[in-house]
Amino acid sequence: MRLLDLSCLCLAWLLAVPDTAFAHGVAEGDKGYIQEISGVHLMSFLYLGAKHMVTGYDHTLFLLGVIFFLYRMKDIGIYVSLFAIGHSTTMLAGVFFNFGINSYIIDAIIGLSIVYKALDNMGAYQRWFGFQPDTKAATLIFGFCHGFGLSSKILDYEISPDGLLPNLLAFNVGVEIGQLLALGAILIVMGFWRRTPSFLKHAYTANVVMMAAGFLLIGYQLTGYFVA
Q1: CA-to-CA dists, residue 197 to 72, 180, 191, angstroms
Q2: What stretches of 39-101 show up as alpha helix (H) in DSSP?
Q3: Percentage with pLDDT > 70 across the chain
Q4: Contact, 112 vs 218, CB < 8 A?
Q5: Predicted confidence (pLDDT) per residue in 121-169, tens digit
Q6: How many CA atoms lie within 13 A of 17 on its CB side?
Q7: Which residues contact 162 (CB under 8 A, 6 or more apart)?
Q8: How far is residue 192 from each of residues 64, 174, 188, 195, 198, measured CA to CA in Å?
Q9: CA geometry: angle 132, 141, 117, nearest 5 deg
Q10: What's the CA gap between 36 and 14, in Å, rounded?
C-alpha cells in the first residue's frame, strides 16, 4: 500500500471516529490513574509519556511533515531535537508552574502547525510571498505549542503535587522515547517510498491530505470552543 493510500485511509478514519481522533493528550483511562495516585511513579509516567507520543496522531503528522523532504540523518536529528526541546520545555514548565492554555485553542494551534508544515512542503510560501520562512524557528515554536497542549490536559486532570517533578521528568523521557519510536516507523516507511517513482509524483498530494487533516483538527477544536 502506498503512503498516499495510507494517508487517505487515516483521514477517512479521522472523519469516522472524531471522539477518539481528537482526544489530544491523555486517554480517559489514564486520566483516572493520574488523578488517583500520589508519590513518585517513574515507570508508570514513563509508559504514559511514550504512549501519548506514539498514539498522538497530531504529533505524528507534524513529525511526518518536518522530515518529509529531509534525507540526511544530521538534518533530521536537528529538526527533531528542536521539536523535542520546544515540546519538553512548555510541557514541564506549564505543569510545574501551573500555567495552562484553553485546550480547544491550543489544540487548534497544533492543527495549524500541521497545516503550516504541509504548506511549507508544498512550496506555498515561496509562491505566495516570495521567501522561505525559517523552518528551524517554526519547528521550535510549534514544539512549544505541542508541549502546551499536553501540559494543559495534565493540569485539567489535577495531578498530585507529591512527586510532581520526578514524575514529570519521567513522563517527558517517555515522550521522547515514544517520539523516537514514531520517528523510526516514519523513516522506515518514507525510506521505502522514496525509492519508488511514486514519491515525487504523489508527494504534493500526500501533503494536501496532511493539510486537510490539520484543517479538520482546527475546525473540530474551534467548534468545541464556541459550543462548549
Answers
A1: 20, 28, 12
A2: 42-55, 57-67, 73-96
A3: 87
A4: yes
A5: 999 999 999 988 999 999 999 999 999 988 887 887 778 888 888 989 9
A6: 7
A7: 38, 39
A8: 14, 28, 6, 5, 11
A9: 50
A10: 31
Distance CA 56, CA 171 (A): 15
Distance, CA of 207 to CA of 118 (rounded, Å): 5
In the chain, domain spans = 3-10+29-227
**How many residues are listed for the chain in this entry?**
228
Its pTM stands at 0.85
Mapping DSSP onto H, E and C, the string for 86-107 reads: HHHHHHHHHHHCCCCCCHHHHH
Q: 49-53, 70-74, 187-191: which range is least confident on average? A: 49-53
The helix-helix angle for 73-96 and 57-67 (nearest 10°) equals 150
Using the Cα atoms of residue 31, residue 33, residue 35 and residue 39 in order, give the sign of their dihedral: negative
* 3-state class (DSSP) for residue 216: helix
Please, are residues 109 and 24 in contact by the beta-carbon 8 Å criterion?
no
At which residue does the C-alpha cell 512542503 appear? Answer: 121
Structural contact between residues 65 and 142, judged by C-beta atoms closer than 8 angstroms? no
How far is residue 208's CA from residue 13's CA, in Å, rounded to a whole number?
16
